[in-house]
# Entry
Amino acid sequence: MDKFIIEGPTPLIGTIPVSGSKNAAMPLMAAALLANSPTTLNLIPRLKDIYTFKKVIEETGTSVNFNEDANSMVLDPANLNNTEAPYELVRRMRASFYMLGALIGNAGEAKVSLPGGCAWGPRPVDLHLKGFEEMGINIELDQGYVYASIKNSTVEGGDFTLNPSSVGATINLVLGAVKRAEKFIIRNAAKEPDVVLLCKMLAEMGADIEGIGTDTLTIRKVDELKGIEYSNDPDRIETGTFMIAAAMHPESDLTLTGCRPEQLGKFPDSFKKLGVDFKIDGTEIRIKSTANLQPVSVTTKIYPGFPTDLQAQWATLMTQANGTSVVTDTVYFDRFSYVPELNRLGGKLRVEKNKVTIQGKTILSGASVMSTDLRASVSLVMAAMVAKGKSEILRIYHLDRGYEQLEKKLNDVGASIQRVPQ
Ligand code: EPU
# Structure
């Protein structure tokens, strides 16, 4: 296991290229299992979660060829002969549960382990299962596994409302329905760019999906889907994370390239209120920070609202704002494991239910901290980059799950981050 040693404070000056999206890539990889010929995916990031999902897919007999230098992946399900996603792999990463929809689509049956809990709470999959049942798929649970089957090769479908709206359930149900359901309607469907990208790819493969980009998706089965070449989106959460990291130091002047700013939803509205100099030019975003950062309270919501995946980073930024702010998470109620660690660095944060109140501005100073999940970890890195002196960030394997070449990208623009064995 490795840790980071970070020396601060350092402004971020220069250019960072944004990588392909982790959360959008995995549904695209799952969709390749539905095709009758190989699929080529571009802009696939080299991340631990991608390698884990590659392994889950390979378990089925599907060949997965990852050209890491080109960030390109070819998947061919021609020899798919095993419809199981085992606990050993699914427990490592919840997105493996997409195999349920992908295998129903490919083979009409699946045995997929239930994902279990995660670092910040139970994160149920009840909506995925209820949705499949509504579709007409037979679902049984036994010894921690979900067994899915269908009597004939197709099911009638149905009309299912997601409450709450769920990215994962929408993706799973779309994957399961496109080749199996006569007509299946998903209401209150997630509209996150990851869902839209998947639906667009499936449509290009030949799927019949009405309402792409809206919250009502109507799917009518097609018999065949063809393999295509398709490009992943850049990572909007990585983009937002670096925007926030730049804002944290008054002398930062950072340009992000290869972005899709229109996929940031309402996030730029909050960002503009900080008082930083912030410009979007096509696929580039430039942030010049300020010594007089304004406190900005935010509440997370489903897309296009403020993303929960930037909640921890925003609260961390607010330690550097001149005043008090409140960050509320309405998507996950218990995603605040970073707070005690941030307080160890000198932050003044107080959690009450699903709100954290941040008293700024505080001078942070280096300490040893550790974290329990991906977004908490990156927030501690950001705090350490503006803290005075040396910090140690333990358990950085979380970062390797979701940020491609994080220390290289940050060191290239002036950070001092060293990876050493823990
Ligand atoms: N929910 C249920 N039942 C379900 C499914 C979800 O009650 O069957 C609830 C959840 O408990 C939550 C809400 O619905 O309160 C939304 O959860 P959602 O299903 O949308 O989340 P997810 O699909 O499990 C994805 C991302 C997360 C991101 C959320 C919200 C991936 C692999 N994961 O998770 O990303 O936080 O959407 O946008 O795409 C991350 O990247 O750090 C991360 C955790």
